[in-house]
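Practice problem 4.
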């Protein structure tokens, strides 16, 4: 994870202006017009293989994003600094992946007004059930939008962030609609492929 270690202390922004599987290149501006940032935070570099799924989606939608490593338990001051300063850096949503006693998303949500999206990670003998319950069972007043355990959760966390940002960004909204439409077409294609396989 050399890339990840390179961004430990200063957030690294990736822009992917020339590639998107969802819309033709000529309709793809340099990035989402408002320059909003989505943070992808995780409790350990061991979480990155899962959280990479969120980064891939954000890149595909050309959303400015940053990867930030911090731990609610091992680096509480660093976690607080990040959470308290995020809104003033133009971060618009924070995706947080953590395993085990996964308090990171809740601790961050308690120190920012931004939407926080939690991704429980399978990192222990309890296979993510520990992280799921730790992330989802927030006390009233401090919401964490909790996704599925693992890679699907990380992917959906990014798609939820896209949905939030698209409320104020028409270009992004169109990309999202195209993405949704492409998924639907893929199901139809799989139906045809399946029938051909069955009849062969
Ligand atoms: C959590 O503990 C992290 O989010 C990670 O999922 C888990 C194990 O961390 P490492 O021991 O691999 O650093 O805080």
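Answer key:
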């Amino acid at each position: 994870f050399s890339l990840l270690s390179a961004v430990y202390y200063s957030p690294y922004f990736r822009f992917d202006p020339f590639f998107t599987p969802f819309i033709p290149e000529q309709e793809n501006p340099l990035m989402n017009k408002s320059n909003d940032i989505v943070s992808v935070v995780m409790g350990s570099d061991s979480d990155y293989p899962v959280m990479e799924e969120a980064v891939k989606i954000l890149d595909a939608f050309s959303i400015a994003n940053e990867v930030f490593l911090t731990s609610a338990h091992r680096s509480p001051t660093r976690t607080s600094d990040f959470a308290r300063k995020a809104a003033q850096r133009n971060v618009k949503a924070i995706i947080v992946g953590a395993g085990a006693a996964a308090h990171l998303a809740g601790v961050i949500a308690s120190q920012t007004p931004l939407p926080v999206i939690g991704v429980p990670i399978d990192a222990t003998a309890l296979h993510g059930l520990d992280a799921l319950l730790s992330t989802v069972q927030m006390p009233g007043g401090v919401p964490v939008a909790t996704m599925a355990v693992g890679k699907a959760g990380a992917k959906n966390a990014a798609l939820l962030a896209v949905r939030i940002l698209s409320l104020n960004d028409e270009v992004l909204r169109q990309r999202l609609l195209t993405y949704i439409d492409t998924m639907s077409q893929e199901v139809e294609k799989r139906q045809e492929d399946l029938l051909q396989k069955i009849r062969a």
